[in-house]
Amino acid sequence: MWINTSHARLPLTARRALRLTRAHGTQVRAVDGTVWITIDNDPRDIVLDAGESFIVDSGRDLVVLPIGERATVDVCHAAGAAARTVAALRARVPPWQHRIGALLQGRWAPRPA
Questions:
Q1: Within a domain: 111
Q2: Residue-wise pLDDT tens digits, 67-99
Q3: What DSSP assignment string belongs to 15-45?
Q4: What is the pLDDT of residue 2?
Q5: Is residue 112 a part of any domain in this protein?
Q6: 60 occurs within a structural domain
């Protein structure tokens, strides 16, 4: 199956592997269960429990397998995940702090009278 999307939630079952190609910068997050990630020609083995994530730092293909009978993973492009995180954090910052941040970065001008 070919999936080309910025975000997907995928159920995994025993003996069924998920293979990701050209996945550099992709975030893999275990939603439910435990998963094992192995990257082609890479000595590392990554094991994620529910709630943990890994951002793919290699251009090589990788395989994601559940440890046990079932697991669920979220696969999303890390840039999109980072942008959502930054937007959520900015929404929590009071407006006066935005103005101070802009002033410190040299982008703020006083409001016209």
A1: no
A2: 999 999 999 976 655 555 555 556 666 666 666
A3: T--EEESS-TTEEEEEEEEEEEEEETT-S-E
A4: 57
A5: no
A6: yes
Nearest Cα to Cα of residue 63 among 29, 16, 27, 30: 16
Question: If we measure between CA atoms, which residue out of 1, 75, 72 comes closest to residue 35?
Answer: 72
DSSP 61-89: -EEEEEEEEEEEEEEEEHHHHHHHHHHHH
Residue 5 main-chain phi, psi, to 5 deg: -150, 165
User: How many domains does the structure of the chain reveal?
Assistant: 1
User: Which range marks the domain in which residue 45 is found?
Assistant: 1-106
Contacts of 53 (CB under 8 A, 6+ apart): 27, 28, 29, 30
Pairwise CA distance, residues 99 & 92, whole Å? 14
